[in-house]
Amino acid sequence: MSRALSLPLATAVPALVMLFIVEGVSVDERIGLTVATALAGLAAAAAVPRVVAAWTTPLWLAAAVGIAMQIRLGAVSPSGAMTMMILAGAAFACAALVSRAISSGPLLPSPFMLAVCAAALLLLRQLPAIAPGGDIESGRLPVPGLGSVQIGEFTRIGLIIIVAFAVDALRRTNGRQRLAAVAALVLVVAQVALLLAVDGGPALLLLIGGVAASVWTVDSEDGRGVRFVTRAPRRVVVVVLATIVVALGLSFFFTNSTLSGYVVDRAIDRIHSLDAPDPQLERARAAVAEGGIIGSGMGSSPLAGLVPEGRSDHAIAVLSADLGVFVVGAMIVAVLRANLTAVSHLAGGEKPGSRAGAALLFVSSVQLTWAALGSFAIAPVTGVSAPWLAATGSALLSTAVGAGIAFGLARAGLPRTTFQADGIRILIAVVVIASVMVAFGSWSRDSLAGSRDRGDILTRDGVVLATGGGATAEYPEGDRRYPLGAETAAVTGRSFALFGSGLSGLESSAIGELTCGGQTPWWSFAEALIHPVPCVPADVVSTIDSHWQAAAAQALSGSTGAAAILDSTTGEVLALVDSTLGDPATWDYGDLPESLATIDAVAPGSVVKPLIAAVAAEQGVDAEDAPREEVEVPGGSVFNSGGARCDDTSLEGAIEQSCNTVFAELALRLGEERLAAGLREHFGADAPSAFDGGVATGLTTGLDGADRAQLARTGIGQESMRATPLGVASAYSALVSSAQGRTPPSTHLVAAVCADGPQVPSTAPMDVVPVAPEAAERALAGMGRAIHGDHGTMRDLADIGRERGMDVAGKSGTAEVPTEVSSSGYVFWATVVVDSRYVITVQVRDAFGVNPATTAAGQILQQMEGDPPSPRCDG
Questions:
Q1: Which of 616, 690, 839, 871 could form a disulfide with 751 if both were Cys (CB 3.0 to 4.6 A apart)?
Q2: What is the pTM of this model?
């Protein structure tokens, strides 16, 4: 291409890309950025020989996109970006001109000078380790008034140049000069070993550059070095793999075994991260998958700004989230094509400067390819940024300097070896394969779901429980708010915007509906062919009734406890309270509290006796002849509470008086197998929870090889039996449904999703077999006697039921537990069935005296008014 066309092309294309792609700037800033980009491209193309001038265009096009991304992330101001672009263009031009001037001179640097420079660069690279605010891994050195300088990139450029000249000196010198050249190479190898102890990526890049420079220098006379790289792409892979092996060997040679093991272990961890990515890589993957093959444009992805190290290590992931992997991949191929075209001019040159330039561009190509494959999760992440696309200040400057040195050395007279079409086909194939893998792979896009905009969580009567969206520039941890705070914490859980895994409650279980449950445009089916359709958030209406929720929270005020209220006809959770959770806004990520209402299961005590009675009644087992005061078991005896005598040993009478002796005897007569099978089959015990409100624990029997003493204590809700208030309420919902001849509905917390009107999710029945209606009726009759009978354990609720016009039945319980669970050594329970429909279960810990759970249940009864309203979406 003629110079007359090269200069306009290198000036106009990057400038036009900047003009149309940059977002979040004013008109004046857009014009300024466009002019700065045009000047940088013009300076670069004018400073290099005509033979490669046109190939600077892809480089500055990529730089324009990279800087637009930095502005989009808020990492640099528009004025700072203009300065950065102009400085980068000037650095490229100056480096090109200086390298041309030096290479055209007759003198070469002496081997002694090479050794001194290598020693100086070795010391300079270690300076960040001792300088305040320095970072040895990235090679960043703070400079007062200027921010920081990425000296790691600059030292790599210098050391690769030194290798080319030192190897050349070995061929043309002898004696002390040759020893000096050897010393320079040894210092470079020492730098590689020291870098391996810090981070393998920069070390391998330096080693690859040194090997490439050496190969081209040794074989430059017959051209074999040129053909090795430019005519056989497969051999490039061999060189890279051999370099890795040599690098690991150097690590063992130059460092102690402990540090070597650390280096190897870290490399293995990075390889394993491809299958089990760490949070950083997982978020990068999710962002890439969000962009698909062709993205929606700069600034379109809500996830791009939330990828850790998105400015540098994962710049390609961020760009892919906005532009799509095919567009980003095409830019990468264009940059690689430009680099390798220049390599084909330089690698066959007679002067060491030409081979150094070829090695610099070859390393830049490897670095760019590696960074891309790392962001696409095809190769391990190396900790090095993508040249040109990761346009941070010092990184862009060092990239421009290295490219300027290399492109400036190209001359029309060099024996050009064209990078063959097979190589280009391989690059294009890699881009296409990566695009397909990203767009249609199985990567989860939900790892950043907590960062997406999301709908509100509402009660059935329109009260807002959670509102606000995902992470923004103003609220990097998200602006999600919980208006009722602790009162509804057991319902909502918490959303941590930056950490998709830091979720609980409905924020976790309904995340799909909250973030992507809304209606998408009619044309979305076509859009889905090129990238995932952007999510439309939707509001989620819970089954909670705000009045009943408030009543339960008030009843537990000042107590350590939890409560659940269910509608047995629908399975809806009308209230779910845990007094210990506190305001979700105060929770810490990684230390989410376990809810007493749904997760932290403890012994249920006598509250399970009606369930055991129903199992026994269905199987025709009774214990009317059971001992009234004591049941002897191996190693001890089971007594009634307070040593009382059981006056009525029928099932109904035993429930009324809560006779331990009768239920211990029932458990023994049923036996472990029948008791466990009955509780599992009819009440869902020991089964995984299918609750749609988050993680939940149901009723568990723990029966497995129990002896007679253990089995007897299981019959009174002790030993290994465990439950939560929600689990007990769900079991009683099954009992009430069975008494009415209905299949019990599954317990659920989501009433509707507001997407173009209320969408009611389907709910399957509870996975149980209803117990015989007669058996369930006997158990409920005993519960009625517990409130209305002369010897009932819950007689205090009888007056409340009469005053409120309610038909109430209930069962209380007191379980002995370790003091680590409850400071008093007891957990108090109460379950009340209201009007053969509603089930209230309360648990109280850290208390003494008369059952406080019964008192709390009575307070809830006094606040219940009519039936809950139907769920609605209109607030």
A1: 871
A2: 0.66
